């Protein structure tokens, strides 16, 4: 990417696509939302993000850390004490993802009410 040209997410070569993929993955979205409430240890994150395997959570945290969204701090104690939190960049991304999730949940609720049968099915 040229320093004078803005990124173009629609271009296959745009590096922002990888970050976008991480931010908008199911587990990425959920981790960001949980971390909006403050720092968490790995085990606490796993409990809060229902259904995620340890492997997927570890991979998601590594990706988000690599993208500059999550900060991992390992305290030098025994047993190891590692906490995860959002960076400033991650905070901004998490707020936007949370707004998208809020909109989606509202749209699903409206759809279920409109259909009258309590089933969601297709959103629109």
Unreliable runs, pLDDT <50, ≥5 residues?
Answer: none
pLDDT averaged residue by residue: 87
Which strand order spans the largest sheet, edge to edge or round the barrel? 1-3-2
Give me the secondary-structure category.
Answer: mainly alpha
Proportion of β residues? 5-15%
Q: In oligomeric terms, what are we looking at? A: single chain
Helical amount among residues, as a percent range? Answer: 40-55%
N- to C-terminal separation?
37 Å
Can you tell me about this structure?
The chain has helices spanning 16-23, 26-35, 42-48, 54-66, 88-115, and strands at 40-41, 70-75, 81-86. A hairpin with a 5-residue loop joins strand 2 and strand 3 (81-86). 53% of the residues lie in helices and 11% in strands. By secondary structure, it is mainly alpha-helical. A 3-stranded antiparallel β-sheet has the order 1-3-2. The protein starts with 15 loop residues before the first helix and ends in a 9-residue tail after the last helix.
